[in-house]
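Quick one - inputs below.
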Amino acid sequence: DTAVSQTPKYLVTQMGNDKSIKCEQNLGHDTMYWYKQDSKKFLKIMFSYNNKELIINETVPNRFSPKSPDKAHLNLHINSLELGDSAVYFCASSQDRTSGGTDTQYFGPGTRLTVL
Amino acid sequence: SQKIEQNSEALNIQEGKTATLTCNYTNYSPAYLQWYRQDPGRGPVFLLLIRENEKEKRKERLKVTFDTTLKQSLFHITASQPADSATYLCALDMDSSYKLIFGSGTRLLVRP
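Output:
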């Protein structure tokens, strides 16, 4: 059984388009995240939701909008895509320390976004 | 703000040797520090966690040390194998927030 899944795995699109990436976790975790990994492999957090509530919102353009319909799902919608948005986007989940966890991240397989 | 540095972009060693990877941080000591492995085209996978009151942690051929005085963690792989070739990331917590900060990773290549 896949713990953290993302769709699609690859996404190729034109500049200016709007796209979404979906994420689901079946680990029963409270917290979910979106990370961006650029070409230099640096993994940077973008957003985090805890029990459907946004708790981390890093300096990310407001073209990026996360949505968490329930604590097992966290989607990422991107408007007006730009060339610089090309990267691998990882979803992750964790059981946070306030509920006995250690914030250990369980990552999805990643979505490689290419903006042409 | 907290910064993490991982030594050398790439580490190239002979099979059977011990690989030692370094993770240094700059500011306050985290409650714990974690190590992850990332293979090309895949998401990072959690390997080990060490708490601030622990000096050393082991798991099979892996060993992690944590020196809060030096603000450093060392990650060792003994009897390395070509299958250990991957990028290894260290990550530490940001105080009481839900956020982990990741280092840029060290790419390990184990030659047969």
